[in-house]
Structure formats: structure tokens, C-alpha cells
Design goal:
Layout: H1 2-8, E1 10-11, H2 21-29, E2 43-46, E3 51-53, E4 61-67, H3 72-88, E5 92-98, H4 103-113, E6 119-121, H5 126-130, E7 135-136, E8 138-142, E9 148-153, H6 158-167
Parallel strand pairs: 4-5, 5-6
Antiparallel strand pairs: 1-7, 2-3, 2-6, 4-8, 8-9
């Protein structure tokens, strides 16, 4: 059983460098995100330079997926996340928050895998620290009122995604 968990979750050590002062201050003031609590707000730029703020997506179900280009389980679940983004249209927002990689690396990954939902850059991994991400992939499902309803650590199957989304009131 432990092997199955290890296969589905890539765990990483915190970065050797300390978080930026802004990230450290934010982390000191915000409790770790938990199910049934409001999702910590953030604003990040997409790999194409568009700014997205989580709170601006209220009224939709939001899946915030923390990932990295070097993460094999992340690569495996991206097509299923894209399929749900396509299937649910304006009722579901999928955001891919990348682990502090360069825009060139993220664009190359996007083009190779065929992802069309927003891929967000997280310089210094400030939002990753805010959400206490300890492994990839990690996905938070947030309801239309901005409340975290589910946290999934590790590789998510299409069936698991469908189950979470159904519980959030989305049916394909």
C-alpha cells in the first residue's frame, strides 16, 4: 500500500532558499488551508501574462492544481483535468499553479501536453507556501462560495475527479 502512495505522489523538500519576505509574512498571518474553510486568496500571472485572482472566480467551482514539469504523476493527470475543464465550460475553472519554473519551461510543457486551462507562474513558490504544498500533484477543489471542499494529494484518476465534481454539484 505504501508503494501505491509513493507512486501517486511526488514529495519534495522545501526549497533551500527561504521564502521571500512577502511570502513569509503572508504565511505567518494565514492559517494552513483546510477543508470547510475559505480558500486563501491569491493573484498570479499566467504563462501568457494575464493576471488571475482566485476570488474573482467566485460563483464557479474551482480546481487549483499544484504541479511541476518534472512531475510524472502531474503529466499523467493533466489530460483528465483538461477534459473536465472542457466538459464543464464556465461552471468549472481549472488553474494549474506551477512550481517556480521558468515561463519557457511551462510553455514547452503546455504545448507538449496540450493544456488550455490557465497555467500560473508562482515566482518564489509563495502560493505553494501559502497552501502548504508538500508534494506534487496536489489539488484543492473550491466551491462557488470560495470554500475548500476537498484536498487531493497525489495522482488523481478521472473517476476521482468526477466524484469530487459531482459532490460539488457538477454533472457531466
Amino acid at each position: 500500500m505504501l508503494l501505491g502512495v509513493a507512486i501517486g505522489l511526488v514529495v519534495f523538500a522545501p526549497p533551500a532558499s527561504a521564502p521571500t519576505p512577502a511570502a513569509a509574512a503572508t504565511n505567518a498571518l494565514v492559517a494552513a488551508p483546510v477543508v470547510a474553510a475559505p480558500a486563501p486568496d491569491f493573484e498570479l500571472e499566467t504563462v501568457d501574462g494575464e493576471s488571475i485572482r482566485l476570488s474573482d472566480l467566485r460563483g464557479k467551482v474551482v480546481a487549483v492544481n499544484f504541479w511541476a514539469t518534472w512531475c510524472s504523476p502531474c503529466r499523467l493527470e493533466m489530460p483528465d483535468l483538461q477534459a473536465r475543464a472542457d466538459a464543464y465550460g464556465d461552471r468549472l475553472a481549472v488553474l494549474g499553479v506551477n512550481f517556480d519554473e521558468t515561463p519557457a519551461e511551462v510553455k514547452a510543457f503546455r504545448d507538449e501536453v496540450g493544456v488550455r486551462f490557465p497555467l500560473l507562474l508562482d515566482p518564489g513558490a509563495a502560493v505553494q507556501h501559502l497552501y502548504r504544498v508538500v508534494g506534487y500533484p496536489t489539488t484543492y477543489f473550491i466551491d462557488p462560495e470560495g470554500i475548500i471542499r476537498f484536498q487531493h494529494l497525489g495522482l488523481m484518476s478521472a473517476e476521482q475527479m468526477d466524484d469530487y465534481l459531482e459532490q460539488l454539484g457538477l454533472a457531466s
